[in-house]
Amino acid sequence: MSNYPLETIRHSAAHVMAAAVQQLYPDAKFDIGPSTENGFYYDFDMEHRLVTEDLKAIEKAMKKLIGRKLPFECFEMNRADAEKMLSEAGQTYKLERLADIPEDAKITFYKTGDFVDLCRGPHVANSGEIGAVKLLSIAGSYFRGDEKNKMLQRIYGTAFASEEDLQAYLKQQEEAAKRDHRKLGVELDLFSFSDNVGPGLVLWHPKGAFIRHTFETFWKEEHYKNGYELLYTPHIGQSVLWETSGHLSFYKDGMYSPMQIDEKDYYVKPMNCPFHIEVYQSRLRSYRELPLRWAELGTVYRYEKSGALHGLLRVRGFTQDDSHIICTPEQIEDEIAEVLRFSLYIWKSFGFTEIKPYLSTRPAKAVGEPERWEKALVSLRKAIDKLGLECEVDEGGGAFYGPKIDLKVKDAIGREWQTATIQFDFNLPERFDMTYIGEDGKKHRPYMVHRALMGSLERFFGILIEQYAGAFPLWLAPEQARILPVSDRQHDAAMALKKELRLKGFRVEVDVKAASLGAKIKDARKERIPYMLVVGEREAADGTMAVRNRREGELGTMTLDQLVEKMRFEVDNKII
């Protein structure tokens, strides 16, 4: 078992994979081969078009190289000699990468067997230290991520310190494939995408829309309970708004082209915050009004490259559960603690129990006085400590306009997701000259916090689908129960039962297909219906039903009142 950090093992595995490709395809040209969060990849340009079957041969060659325990030898070269070596080898992509290295920086290469790579390291001592490897897939990738450049061939793989760790990961990936929200979204008729509408723009189907309505309603009710007020703002704004906010300077590549209205440029909004500030600026504010907690389910549009789009998890149009807290410096500590508590409550309500905060501190380039940063960081730390949470610190990982807390949650199969963000902002209050009248009668600059609990509703829904594997808990399920008449003779009794349950607030349908009871049960299970209510001759006669529960199996015969009591308890307590 290797004792090196996973990042080092995986980076070394990428080199060994490239060495294996060089053996099998001598004409290959190489770009880059970094480690990633879950493995590694390498980009190649070669005549042979890789197919999935090729991965077996490449992996076999890799394992032979690993077994030879080849040393990773580092050597330094001057720029002229490095250029000469790469030019003679025909490695045009590496020459471009060499040009990216600053003039005063050291130029290093690593040699593994016959393979030599421009690389700053680090690596394991020899290939035998890599542990266990597995090649996973092939994809296309534009050089430097630019669609104008040539598309290269990318091989993805993963590596772990031990075979046991690798097998555990592969098992998790197998389970993840079963839970893939893109597959389940089609199977359960929840959402779709259309080439006619455009990539990255989600079409919510009735069932998906109902689930969204349910968690939106929960979100709104909880926000009102916790002292928030809701805002609604436009989808477009004049260019002057985005110039003032700085988006046209710092974020233009992520914005869509302007449209001309009345000879002025308007942009569809990439963010909601400038609109909330305009509400604040609509009149003079007093310290007595603060804190203001304003929230909005605001739809925004951001340009994402087509290769980055991924189902609901990465889209171009999405609704953000946005909120901005505007308060005095004296109020900030309590506000942060309350936001963090509220964030944990929301995620735990959906069944996520393993939640960890990450604290990002001041980067090298930042706006705002250092003392404000320090006070903000103290407030963030105190909020984390107050709730008894352990956190990791990301030194220098804050945005240029303020420190932040990111929450990451683990799902049902152990994957970690980036979720809620609590972000200080020292930039926009300055840019928009936000002030309030203090107790001393003078103008003061308020503190401003951006806060998203779910993030994007689309991404949140994608995570929920995978968390539950499409089997939504009763309170979220678009269809909570399905009545299954054994034959046509029970049709009237089934319809009467549906009417009673709907009057009591439950979402119920009747399966009226001319099919066997077994087939109806199979269909209901496939569609993840929480409750199946079988009505045969006896049940129709005495006003009962044979109840099947998706989790608990056969529950026996129940009266309407007994069923309603059980279902009501699950819904009211949001049983997961």
From TrEMBL:
Signal sequence segment: none
CC cofactor note: Binds 1 zinc ion per subunit.
Enzyme Commission number(s): 6.1.1.3
Annotated GO MF terms: ATP binding; metal ion binding; threonine-tRNA ligase activity; tRNA binding
Cofactor names: Zn(2+)
Any single Pfam family the record assigns to this protein: tRNA-synt_2b
Membrane-spanning ranges: none
One example of a Gene Ontology biological process annotation: threonyl-tRNA aminoacylation
Domain Aminoacyl-transfer RNA synthetases class-II family profile: from-to ranges: 182-473
Binding site for Zn(2+): C273, H324, H450
PANTHER family associated with the record: THREONINE--TRNA LIGASE, CHLOROPLASTIC_MITOCHONDRIAL 2, THREONINE-TRNA LIGASE
Protein name: Threonine--tRNA ligase
Species annotation: Victivallis vadensis
The encoding gene: thrS
